[in-house]
Amino acid sequence: NAGVTQTPKFQVLKTGQSMTLQCAQDMNHNSMYWYRQDPGMGLRLIYYSASEGTTDKGEVPNGYNVSRLNKREFSLRLESAAPSQTSVYFCASRNLRDQLNTEAFFGQGTRLTVV
Amino acid sequence: LAKTTQPISMDSYEGQEVNITCSHNNIATNDYITWYQQFPSQGPRFIIQGYKTKVTNEVASLFIPADRKSSTLSLPRVSLSDTAVYYCLVGPNYGNNRLAFGKGNQVVVIP
Question: Which residues of A touch B (CB under 8 A)?
């Protein structure tokens, strides 16, 4: 059982280049999330998807786009990378239900450097 | 999501019980209280979730007073491997789907 898988694990981009971070989960979860984490900071929500076909902005959406391709996959795209987007990116998923222990599962992260 | 307030950091000695507090004064009736743990270079991991009173699992205990305006995560007899950032989240388990983390509480366990 792989859980949440992110690709790639590491990436170096030049300013202005574009790329897509991939995330896939095999737990049949309805909700998926993208976060960024900078040194000494907590996780900041970029975008989330409550269910297949829906996406919503989080705290820091500028410079990013997302696609909920199907129930399993939620991708994050940087159209024109900037040095300020150098960060570690985490994807997560969970099932919302009105009961205890609706825990979120996280991927191992993608470490992105923009030079 | 209800806003939470946690200390930025704390130190504890190995073998001691560690109590980590979180304030959430504007918690709503439908909100649950959830704690996550994050080790360096890893994604957060779910520890425990509760609604009221006390919840215990194999990892930790969660104490929630009757007014639910705060909560305390208790880690028994910590070891060096418990050094991590601990996040307190408050929100419903349905409806509003945002899962917003704050800066968390850096706990350092000292030998």
Answer: 4, 31, 33, 35, 41-45, 48, 50, 56, 58-59, 88, 90, 92, 94, 96-109
